[in-house]
Structure formats: C-alpha cells, structure tokens
Amino acid sequence: MAMRIVVLGGGTAGTTVANRLARALRPEIRRGAVEVTVVTDRDRHWYQPGYLFVVFNERPLEDFVRPERALLLPDVGMVVDAITRIDLERKQLISPHRHYPYDVLVIATGSYPDFQSVPGLAEVTYNFYTPEGAERLRDRLTTWTGGRIMIVQDVPHKCPAAPVEVTLMLDDYFRRRRLRDRVEIVYTYPIGRVHAAEPIADWAKQQFDARGIRYETFFNMEAVDPKRQVVLTMDGGEHPFDLLISIPAHKGAGVILNSGIGDESGFIPTDRHTLKMIGQDDVYVLGDATNLPISKAGSTAHYQAEVLVKNLVDRVRGLPETHLYNGKVACFLENSLGDASFITFDYDRPPKPAATSELLHWFKGMYNDLYWLTARGLM
C-alpha cells in the first residue's frame, strides 16, 4: 500500500510543500509507493502580501488569486473539503462528509485575524488582511479628504512588519494627493516600542519622526465604541478616530482549536528545528500554524518547506532525518509607494533593515508575480 502523505491546507505553506514533495518523490509516486494529497477548504489560492498594493490602487485584487488546482502538479491529489477535526490517534482527518486517513500529516492551516477579539471592533474597522478588506479600504481612501487615521494592532499577527509598511505608505499616498496636511496618522503598538523586533522598531521610529507620524506605545485595546468612533484602552484612555485600520490578534484555524491539539489561540506546539508536532513523530507543522517564536510570514513557510521536504524525502527512502530549520525569515519593508528596505534574520541573528532604495521596491513588486513560482515549488 502507498504511503499516504496528506497536507492539510492549501496556502503558501501547504502548496509549496506538496509541490516540492511531488518533484522530489516523483519516482515513488509514479510507481505507486507514495501518494501526496492536499486537503483544503477552498479552491482558490490568495497571495496575501499583495493586498497592500490593492489598498493603494497599485494592483487589482485579481492579480493575487489563482485556482489552487492550477498551482499543484499533476502528481499531487487535491480534495476540497472543510475538515472539522484531526484525530491523531486514528490518524485521520474528519469532515462532515467523510474521513481521510494518513500515514504522515503535514499541517499548514495558517492563521486568521480575529476581528471579534475586541468588543465593537468588527463594526467599524477597516483592514488590509483580507481580500474584501483590502478593496473596501482602497475605496474608502479614494474618497478620503482628511481626518485622523488610527492604525491599531494586537499580537500575534502574520506579516509583523506590514502595519509599519501601511503606515509609511499612507503617508506617501496622501503626500502624492496633496492631502497630507489634512491627515493625522497615528500608529499604535501594544508594548513599549513601535515593533517587537528592536532593530525594526528603531528604523520605523526614525521614519515616523521624520514624516510627522504620531505613534503611541503600550496601546492595548479594551473596546471600540462605534457610535462615538473612539478606541478605549486598558489604561482608561479614550482615543478618537475618523478612520480605524486594525490588525487584531490572529488565531489558528478552527480545526486546530476543535481538535484540541494547539494552545489557547490555536497554534500547534512545534519543535523549532525538526518542525514536528511536539509528541508526534508522524505530524509536521509549518507556516502560521506553528507556535514558534518567529514571524508568521510567507518567507518563513518557504524556508521551513525546504527543510521539511528534505526530511520527508529521507523518511520515505529510509534515511535519517537530519535537516534542521534555523529560524530563517526574509522580507521586504515598504518605506513608501516608491522605495523599500529588506531584512533577513534567524533564531540567532536579529533583523537589520537595509538602506532603502527604489530597486528594493522594484524587487518586491516583481516578487508579486514571481510568487506563483514559489508556490509551484520552483523557487
């Protein structure tokens, strides 16, 4: 009987792993020794970092979506079904329709912004972390003539630098439209600096100071009053706004919470080097689904996939699993609508933003199109 490798999740992490496995294990798949199947609850694949460009009307939303089946290699099976529970004891995925057995499971179920986490937030907020949110914010900014824009956030959330990027891009957007003197931009963060990573915080603070962007730290939301358009904070403060952009704390997928295999937020305890679920030898976890103390970002999933696939291939072929993930992450940092920085870091090396340039902005824009090669396992 073929070894059944099931990848749960059809986002960046799951799609990349499945395609890399299919290429590396092509001989085993062709002779029927291995099966690779992606189980996903949606048939479309979204490139989420592209939403920032939708917000500022730089690219249309349709540029950042593809049919999932078109991204997967022919040797990869695909099932569209909403899995409600993972049964680790019986080694099967359970949906309202059927059960899916596995021999090896790769969990790549991602994370999602919880707009219900703060009372009143969902009623009034704009966001750029969902497709519909990006288009709605784009349309609102198009008609914006002035007022106070607040960017509020909680942790953890995916793409940790994105709130800094959108703030700097907002500044440039309104300068280009000759409206900057009518717009007050206020950036907030829940701890004592403007970003969790100190080098990024130092870099961002310099940019904010130079451009007249206000920032408030130790800003922890308690509730939002939609009628009064006020954010209430845990220290008793009241903060009025005309437009609220929020990045609430993210949670793991519902299937993880329903299965009771994650922490209280739905993130799975994962070995930081082997990417195996703690206590499970046949379950691997990558991308946003892990509880690892590192950025939830597409590049994280990319580098994790390289290690995970090598170990899975060795496992199939009876070799020891010796490849280790070192925590590597890399990402661009938009500094405006026309230039960008870049950072790379890992478990042992902190991030150090590169000097901003138009070339790095161009590279980020180019990667918006090259991403589809990454998902296909070609980069």
Description:
With 379 residues, this protein is of the alpha/beta class. It folds into two domains: 3-110 and 253-328, 3-Layer(bba) Sandwich (FAD/NAD(P)-binding domain), CATH 3.50.50; 114-249, FAD/NAD(P)-binding domain. Helices cover 30% and strands 24% of the residues. The protein has eleven helices and 21 strands. The chain has helices spanning 12-24, 26-30, 51-55, 68-71, 121-124, 131-142, 162-176, 198-211, 254-259, 298-316, 358-375, and strands spanning 3-8, 34-40, 44-46, 65-67, 76-80, 85-87, 92-94, 99-101, 104-107, 111-113, 147-153, 183-188, 214-216, 221-225, 230-233, 238-240, 243-247, 250-252, 283-285, 329-334, 340-345. The protein has a five-stranded parallel sheet. A four-stranded parallel sheet has the order 13-12-11-17, covered by helices on one side. A hairpin with a 4-residue loop joins strand 7 (92-94) and strand 8. Helix 1 (12-24) packs parallel to helix 10 (298-316). The mean pLDDT is 95.
